[in-house]
Each structure stands twice: as C-alpha cells, then as structure tokens.
Amino acid sequence: MKTLVVYYSAEGHTRRIAEMIAENLGADIFEVVPETRYTAEDLDWTNDDSRVTHEHDDEAKREMKLESTDVEGWEEYDRVIIGYPIWYGIAAWPINNFVKAMDFTGKTVLPFCTSHTSGLGDSDLLLKKDAKGGEWKEGFRFFQDALESKVKEWCEGLGV
Q1: pTM for this one?
Q2: Predicted pLDDT of residue 3
C-alpha cells in the first residue's frame, strides 16, 4: 500500500505530527500551502479584525488559492492521510480547499487533526462531505504537542 501524508500547518504543530507519521509509515509527504500565507497576526482568533476571524464570519472568504494541488504520482497512492489544525471546531480552510480540488476515488483516506484544546468535532465528516470519492475513515485528534510514542502507536494501529 503506497501512502501519502498531506498536511496544512499554520504554526508547525501539524507539520511535526505529519512528519512523524510519514517517517513511521515510510510514506511520502505533501504540504498544502495557501498562496497568501497566514501571519501570526492573521491567526489571532481573539482579535475581531484578524484574517481568521473575518474568514470564520464570512465563509466566502475561506475559498483561497493554494500554491499547488499538483501531487506528483497522485494516482499511485492507495492511502492518503490528511492532517490539519482545528479552527473554530472544523478543519483549517486550506485543507478544505485541497480536499475539494482532488479526486479521492480508489483511495482510503484517514484524517487527523491537531489541537491544544478542541476535539475532532465533525471536521472529518465535513471533509468527507466535500470530497470527490474515497473511502473515508473516522478521524483522529492528536494534541498539538503529542509525544512521538503516541504517533507511533497510532501508526501501528493502521496495520502497515
């Protein structure tokens, strides 16, 4: 089974977990990057004038161009693991835009999120709803500072 780990990381937490998953599974990795990257000020959800607050309040603003959705060898992957931070109880919007752009037909998809306090919520179900095809599995939530042993345990549970 050929595996790809796709992730969006605003502050590095999801990147760290995605890299550990890729290493444990011997998987390839692809970073989702918005054309207009988020600054620390953009991510300040406590500020009513921040970018994420405006995007949260107006769903149309969540539609954004990504630097690329061109995953080399996409058709060769059997399993896609998708990682993202939780924003306002759902997947960070850059990952939504990636999911909407891709065809997951014939792939098993395993979502995971990272968060300090929020749970997975319905983020995995909402991504599945927006996706074209794929066999979507229940998502998993990692604490943003999860230990490597926890990530390894999760990977072993996938039955590589």
Answers
A1: 0.92
A2: 97
- Cα separation of 24 and 21, whole Å? 5
Question: Hey, how many other C-beta atoms are within 10 angstroms of the C-beta on 105?
Answer: 11
Residues written for the chain: 160
Nearby residues of 74 by Cβ (< 8 Å), 6 or more positions away: 4, 102
3 state SS for 89-144: CEECHHHHHHHHHCECCCCEEEEEEEECCCCCCCHHHHHHHHCECCEECCCEEEEC
**Average pLDDT of the segment spanning 22-40:** 94
Q: Tell me the backbone φ, ψ of residue 123, rounded to 5 degrees.
A: -55, -40
CA 3 centroid distance within chain: 15
* CA distances, 21 to each of 80, 84, 105, 137 (Å): 12, 13, 23, 16
In angstroms and rounded to an integer, the radius of gyration of the C-alpha atoms of the chain is 15
Q: Which two tokens stand for residue 145?
A: 């500072």
